[in-house]
User: Fold this.
Amino acid sequence: MPLDPENKAKSRYDILFEPMPIGPVVAKNRFYQVPHCNGGGYRDPSAVAEMRRVKAEGGWGVVFTEQVEIHQTSEIAPFIELRLWEDKDMPMLAKMADAIHSYDALAGIELAYSGINGPNLYTKEVPLAATGGPILTFTSDPVNARSLDKSEIRDVRRWYVNAAKRSRDCGYDLVCLYGAHGFGIIQHFLSRTTNKRNDEYGGSLENRSRFMREVVEDIREAVGDTMGITIRLSLDEAFDELSFSNSEVRECIDMHGDLPDLWDLAHGTWENCSATSRFKDEGAQEDLIRGIKDLTSKPVVGVGRFTSPDAMVRQIKSGVLDFIGAARPSIADPFLPKKVAEDRIEDIRECIGCNICVTGDFTMSISRCTQNPSFMEEWRKGWHPENKPPKGDSQSVLIIGSGPAGLEAARMLGGRGYEVALAEASADLGGRVAKERLLPNLAAWGRVMDYRLGQIEPLANVSIYRESALSAEDVLSFGFEHVCVATGSHWRRDGTARARLIPLDIDKDMPLFTPDDIMAGKMPDGHVVIYDDDHYYMGGILAEKLHQAGCQVTLITPAAKVSEWTVNTLEQEKIQQRVMEMGITIMTSHALNAVKRDHVVTACAYTGQEKEYRADAVLMVTARDGETRLWDDLKQRQDEWQDAGISSVKLIGDAAAPAPIAWATYAGHRYAMEMDTPSDKGDDPVFRREVAQLDNS
Ligand code: ADP
Ligand code: SF4
Assistant:
């Protein structure tokens, strides 16, 4: 997408828009959407295709698929990615390439043979690996892979060629050979940790890189005059002392500098590469990648959750990178390149680094994005990250509550042209985000409110009223046509959540706290027991906060791990490590049975055996209840709505059902999108979906 010629001469971002050759093809700019999962994959191909199309529309010069399994002998079910096992798979892959091409981007496909990482739970084939051994998956599947013999290595090389030819026939411009994150057999061959062969494919680096070289040469011979061939490698495997280290990566690139048409470099494990903002800043991989460009004449792409165009320019000008790789920043704002080109930097919807998008893949559901509620809804619901439908017949909307749900509803309804009043009980806008952004290392989460307030500010048709705690009487007296109740939630004090569904026996003399108290500045002291039956980030992060404040913290949870659900955000090990390194006492697999005057009683989740822990205070991180008082009062007075000029009242966000912030921005977005265009389709689903075709052959 060209820069506006008027602005071109003066834009300091010009360098990001230089065309860049990748082998026989040319990317129109340096914005490179690296492969990323989306939880939809082969189950939701049209949803994936439309998501990629929107990225191309937003100006990305290169748009990749997620990982594509090239052969049925290596698959990663239950994870849902893409497959190119036979011609039958081609139409959905071609649809994605076509979608990407509709806006002049290069279409890339990431080919993966998963080796020691593919348990083959779906195909029931014996997994084949560089060197056999227990399958290395997140779920430690009780399956072993067998070492490939030499004729099977030739088979795998042929399968790569078959997949590359099919990719070309689907219309792709770039193939990427996946050898990063521990997920691709290219890496398994390169690493002494996963390659213990003593033939010509094992031992020296030259031998270990033979498979990679052969595959590239085979593909080049088959399709290299039409497609660019890229290799995606881990920058630092960081597994054990034999791992494919950063210095070996450099040696390898030095040895094979001109082998591929581009080097695509990502951190070691996926957890490190896609670290959350709680653990890593923007551009965190720079030390691992700096200097690699000097080892090759081919372009280098790297990632780093880049959302700042100045940081991007610095990466290019200082010779670290040729392309700005991005997965999450492109999810949060598919139009990031276009906004940079148009010098609309303040409109960039910056990724907050929460990894909710990753949870869609981990839970095999479909991905969401906290910042961009339209992600994966482009086809399912026809939502677009930038375009808003025109205003309908209604005129005015009162939104109560300025948390992520209320702010997103106000941004969207204001943008559509409605008269919007946003009322907030407190002096501060932002709801839970305004408080949670102050927790240790969660500052980037504040972007959820900063972006929305920045977008709302210029809208003359949106009025904001702070310190306006509204009652039902207030609402009925105002005369707004529509009322949106986004009043949020509060943490429970009585210990009920999952392990316990009925209130705990709590001595009234024990000082009792909830996360709301802590975030409001009301702090305990002495020995504090944190009871976490919530399992997302709050228990672990408050353990850190209280420890930093000088409390002696004991973290008790019925789960087997600290902040167990954060397995899905790739954070769990880092959180547990941090909590352990702080010296916080951890008691997993234990539920709270009673809270006494000066101690708590726990019960083992398995045996029921009871134990006592001294406590000067207890912090309950258990469950939240929707703040529904206003909603309940309004419902009680439903017969007065019509006379008050109210045609609808809706409860949304945490007030309706507490959940992560992404659920709230989604709820606010949906409310605004459905204003005057309800999605009601009778008893049918409110989104489009694809259903497997019966094969009657
Ligand atoms: P969500 O995640 O659903 O957006 P939050 O808890 O982040 O919810 O935000 C809810 C906001 O609603 C809070 O800032 C709270 O102060 C505000 N609020 C709650 N009740 C009222 C009320 N009756 N009038 C105005 N604002 C309210
Ligand atoms: Fe970024 Fe969070 Fe959106 Fe993922 S879900 S793209 S980490 S804001």
Remarks:
- The chain has three domains: 18-267, 396-488+627-673, 493-625.
- Residues 293 and 319 are 7 Å apart (CA to CA).
